[in-house]
Structures are given as structure tokens and as C-alpha cells.
Amino acid sequence: MSYKRSDFVPFSADSGRVGANLEAAYEQWLDAQQQLATLPVSMYWQRKASGDYLAVKQRSSDPGTTLGPRSDATEARFAEFTQRKAELKQRIADADALIGDRAAQYRALRLPPIPDRQAEILRALDVAELLRNDLLVVGTNAFIAYSLLCNARFPAGVEETEDFDLAWCRGSAVSLARTNAGAPQRSSLMSVLQGVDPTFRLNRKKPYQAVNANHYEVELLMAPSLAPLPKGEAFEPMVSLTEQEWLLEGRPLSVVVATLRQRACPLYVPDPRWMALHKLWLAGKPERNALKKPKDRRQGEVLLSACRYFLADTYPLDIDFVLELPAELRDLFDAWARAGGFDPTRPTA
Fold first, then answer.
1. What is the pLDDT along the chain (349 residues), one digit of tens a residue?
2. Torsion sign over Cα 326, 332, 334, 336
3. How many helices (H) and strands (E) does the chain have?
4. Do β-strands 206-211 and 201-203 pair in parallel, antiparallel, or remain unpaired?
5. Distance between the two ends of the chain, CA-based, in angstroms?
6. CB atoms inside a 10 Å sphere around CB 133
7. Is 128 helix (H, G, I), strand (E, B) or coil?
8. What whole-number distance in Å separates Cα of residue 63 and Cα of residue 83?
9. Closest by alpha carbon to 126, among 11, 231, 265?
10. Phi-psi domain of 85 (left: phi exceeds 0; alpha: psi -120 through 50; beta: other)
11. Chain centroid to CA 254: how far?
């Protein structure tokens, strides 16, 4: 089916301003966190028989490395480290307070939030510079970003979910890193997950999935063209899912949303047009779980309709877009267009 414009409920006129302010506060927080992450975990004086020595730990698990005996130079280095770390922690605290205020405004406008469990992981991925460079968010959580982009509540598609899917994108046109899939990376996905929750382990029966002690699942999907993953990644995503290639087309979208507990969370999601058709294709995939198919179809139809009514300038469903589609997706688009009386040669009519 094709949804009507009246099926979408516009957000408040203030929603764009509130969302932009939340994003600005989050970027301040992210910048300070990323700078803090480049500092050693600790620097301290270690007493030895011959006197005090300056020691440093790059990570909490490190045994510590000696930088030299106490001297004007090592005291200056220790003072510089202590001051820099204190400054960054204060910047983070200030940004956290600002985020809390702006997230409260966001929630007051009844804009769509994201659960805090997903948000904590996504923030950690962003600090580690994996989100946007190596990974993008796919699945139901992405629909929060699309709803905000359209400045309207969807009639369906933003249902809350208790787990989420990530797609590998490094080496593709939608990665901000623009490097090949085998390039070295700072952290692995599993190391970030275990930094958030040490109980995360790879599901040996489904090596594309990590599960924690509470049975919370994080899945990593991968397009065949990007295989294999870099060395050091524990995940083994299936590389036979040709449909994942479609989520690497077009122009991805980056937004910041509030969480249920009034924090901020980044989302980096695929082009809404390609996501919509991807969902419609999944709804007809024979191997797809039959219980998921109605939701897939509903989400695809809602998102295509949202592109039609709200994103004609930024994500047009025009003839140029249609000609880019592979045959299996073009048939789905044509069926949707016929059902809704939509003509891609006159997309704004």
C-alpha cells in the first residue's frame, strides 16, 4: 500500500531547532571524549629504592612503563598530563549537563527517543571512531533518524526494539574513512562492546552475533563486496547477503537523538530510499522469518511514502533514481508507485 501525507503527524515547529541544539552539545561531548581517549589512563609517581620515577599506563590493564626519575622535565610532564586530563573531564561534564537540558526539551516535544542500552553502545562506537567510518546502523533503529529527517511521526516503522543490527561499511562510498576494508583500525567492534559490557561474547552458533549475559544481541552484517573483515575482528558475518550491497548506495544520513533517560545518541543510517526498497525486498525473501515480513513490508511502504512527501528535494524518487535500481528493486518500486498513483517522471506532482 501507499500511505497518504495525512497519515504522517508533523512534529512541533521547534523540533528542528531543538534537534540541532542537541547535536551541537553532543559534538562538544564527543570531541572531548575522543581527546581524552588519546591520553594515557593514568600517570603517577612510583617509589623505588633510588627515588621517585614517573610511570604511565596507556590502558588500565597495562603493568605501567617508567618514563624516568623525578626531575624538572618529568614533573612538568606530569603536571601537563594532570591539567589536560582535568580540563577534558570538565569539558565532558559541562557537555553532559548541556545534553541533559537539551534532551529534556527534545523529550518534551515528544520526538522519538532511542533506548539507552543501544545508545551506550553507539556512543562508545563513535568515541572509538568506528561509527560512520566502519559501521552504520540498519534495521528498526534507523527509522528514528528518518522520522526526524522528515520532521514527522510515522504511522508505522519506529517500533521500539531491544536489539540492533550494524552493517560494515569501511571501503564503501558511504564510509567517511574512504579506505579499503583491510585497512587497520583503532579498535575492534568486539573490544568496544566488551568495554561497555564485559559479558559480551561471540555466539559460536551465529558468529555474526554478539550476546551479553542478559541475552542482548548485536549483529554485524556485511556486503559481499567488502569481505573479509580486517584482522582482529571476532565477528564472522555472512557474506552471501547480496541485499546488503543496496544499503551502501546513495547518501547516508547522520543525526543525533535523545535517549529515554535524556542523554544523546548518534545514528548513522543508510539512504532512506534504498533502505525502504531493501525492506520491501526482505518482505518477499523466501528465507526471511515469516513473523518479520509484515513489519518489513510496512516499514518499506511507510519510508517510500515519507520520501515522496517530505524528501523530494534531498532524496528524490525521480526517474534518475529509478534507473539506478537493479531489476528486482525496480519491480518493487513500480508496484508501490502504481498502488499510490506516483509518477517518477513528475515526482513533485
1. 779 999 999 999 999 999 999 999 999 999 999 999 999 999 999 999 899 999 999 888 888 899 999 999 999 999 999 999 999 999 999 999 999 999 999 999 999 999 999 999 999 999 999 999 999 999 888 999 999 999 999 997 556 666 789 999 999 999 998 554 444 456 899 999 999 999 999 999 999 999 999 999 999 999 999 999 998 899 999 887 889 999 999 999 999 999 999 999 999 999 999 999 999 999 999 989 998 899 999 999 999 999 999 999 999 999 999 999 999 999 999 999 999 999 999 988 7
2. negative
3. 9, 12
4. antiparallel
5. 19
6. 21
7. coil
8. 23
9. 265
10. alpha
11. 8
The type of residue at 82 is T
For residue 23, count other CB atoms closer than 10 A to its CB: 17
Amino acid sitting at position 285: K
Matching residue, cell 500511505: 3
Q: Are 19 and 106 in contact, with CB atoms under 8 Å apart?
A: yes
Tell me the one-letter amino acid at 1: M
Distance CA 205, CA 115 (A): 27
Buried b (16+ CB within 10 A) or exposed e, 282-316: bbeeeeeeeeeeebbbbbbbbbbbbbbebbeeebb
DSSP H helices, the chain, are: 15-37, 72-108, 116-127, 142-150, 189-196, 272-283, 293-310, 319-324, 327-340
Give the H or E element holding residue 301: helix 293-310
User: In degrees rounded to 5, what are phi and psi of residue 87?
Assistant: -65, -45
Pairing of strands 65-69, 152-153: unpaired
Query: Which residue type does 41 have?
Result: V
Query: Which of 62, 44, 40, 61 shows the shortest CA–CA distance to 53?
Result: 44
State the pTM of this model: 0.92
Count of CB atoms situated within 10 Å of the CB of 337: 17
Letter for the amino acid at 149? L
